[in-house]
Structure formats: C-alpha cells, structure tokens
Amino acid sequence: MLPTLEELLGFRATAARWSLNGLTRAGAAPLGARRSLHRGRGLEFEEVRAYVPGDDLRSIHWRVTARRGRPHTKLFREERERPVWLLVDLQAGMFFGSRVQLKSALAVRAAALLAWAAVGGGDRVGAVIGNGSVLRCLAPRARESGVLPLLRELLALQPRAPAVPAEAGLGEALRQLAVLARPGSLILGISDFAQLDAASEARWLALAERNECRLFQVSDPLERAGLPDGRFRGGLPGRLQALDGAALRGAWRSAWQSREQRVGALARRMRAPLIALDTATPAALTLAPLLRGAKRAA
Questions:
Q1: pLDDT digits (tens, 9 = 90+) for 74-88
Q2: Cα 148 from Cα 8, distance rounded (Å)
C-alpha cells in the first residue's frame, strides 16, 4: 500500500521524542551542541579572543590583529536553527518490493519521519526530491511550514508503476542540492544508490566537504539474496522474460555485492554514517533506536 498524507501526518507523534543527534558520527560532538572555531555560513559570530596554538588560521580576525599588534581569533557557534536537507530518490526503479512495502514507499516514510524529527529539534527542513522526470526543490523552513509541503511532494512524486529509471536521476538531484545547500547544513540522502556512478560520487564528496552528511540505503531482501530456485517471469510490462533463479543467483548476488561495496566505500570517504533501510521492516522501527535521545542543547 502506498503511503497516504494521513499516515505521514501521524508520524509527527512518532518522531516527537526523537533527535537527529543520534545520527552524529561515533565519537563526534552532537550537532548544534558544540562550539566551533570554523568560519563559514551557518555559524553565528560570538566573540574575538587572543589566538592560541591550535586555532584555525582561517578564523584569524585580521583587522583586530593589525590594530592590537598580536593575533586574534574569531569564535563562532552554530546557529540553533540549522538547515536540514532531505535528498529523496524516487526513481522508477524504487517501485519494487517483495515484503512489507515498496522501496519507494519506505523512502517516503523515512523522509517524513526524519523531517518531523528535524523540526521537532528546532531545525529548518528543506528537500530535493526527484523521480527521474520531475525534480522538486523546497527551501528549508521551520515547523509545519517546512514539513507539510515536503509531505505533499513526496506523495505526488512517488512512482506508481514499474518503468525504466531515467539516466539523469540522482545525479541531477545532487547537482541542484550542491547549489542550494549552504555550508554547515545537515544532508540526509535516501536512495537505493542503484545509479551511483563516478559523477555522483564526486558530487557526494564535494557536499561532504562543507556539510554533515548521512546516507540511508534502501533495499529489499529479494534484491539482496536473489531469486529462489525455480523459473519466473520478470521485467517491465510488455517486456517480461523468463528467469531461472538458480542460474541467475550468482551474477545477481555479485552485482548486489558490488553496489554494497561501492556505497560503503563512498560513505567511508565521506566520513558519513550509512544506515540500512529494509522493506521488510517499518521505517519507524529502524530509525527509533538511532534517533531516541536528548534534544539539542540550547
């Protein structure tokens, strides 16, 4: 069953006690709760103090340094309302599922839950949502004014029938996000990463240089394990073909493992957590253990 607006609105209560701090890298300070000497947009100027060894040279306040005759550093703190961007891949290839839900439905539900968690923590949420033929960009906004338009676009753009995925797809969404996301944003990418290529990897890495990124990989048990023994008919409507499960399983699993390795390697290069979303498990059950916790410090 495809998600409905009523269902997605109901996720507000589910995410009421969640915090995106749970997605912070292990060993890192919670986003929004740390002080930073880094200079950049998304940071609020706080004070100037004398330079001490170890300070970022990019943060030296040159006018104060010249006036006082010794180095001084600008201190910043992160804005309470940081931009949170959801990048949601709703390509036609996401219209697949052998268990509880389609991959596209899982992506929509996960995006809605993360959006509610973001605004519940005082953040502004925006989105870049693409289905291969249509791309929607929503500027970050706070509270319901940020979530409600996002939910409507998720529902409108989710695929409703099998089709051949567009070639541009995720790459075009990443290109748009690179233009829109200001440094210091939190970027949550939800996709099956089936179209991950060298150009997309380069765009992800560029985003990770200036932003905090988290990757959510959507998959299905059949997609990971391959077809069981037997003969099946599969493919797109009008283009069905006979499939032999036993004969195809080796190549099927090899292709899946190659994708897993590529996505995992990208996440490590980005220094970004990689969270697995499985169509056999409701999104709330997967996300709850990661997102339960204290709200960000004021």
A1: 876 554 567 999 999
A2: 9
pLDDT for 22-74, tens place per residue?
A: 776 433 333 333 333 333 444 556 678 888 776 778 888 899 899 999 998 88
Q: Is 102 exposed, middle or buried (0-12, 13-18, 19+ CB in 10 A)?
A: buried
Report the predicted TM-score, pTM, of the whole model to 2 decimal places: 0.79
* pLDDT tens digits, 215-228: 999 999 998 988 78
Tokens 């693409």 sit at which residue?
Answer: 130
Alpha-carbon gap, residue 243 to 240, rounded angstroms: 9
* Residue 200 burial (CB count, 10 A): 20
Read off the amino acid at residue 233. R
Contacts of 255 (CB under 8 A, 6+ apart): none
Domains of the chain: 5-24+80-289 (3.40.50.410), 35-78 (no CATH)
The 43-50 sheet, strands edge to edge: 35-36, 72-78, 43-50
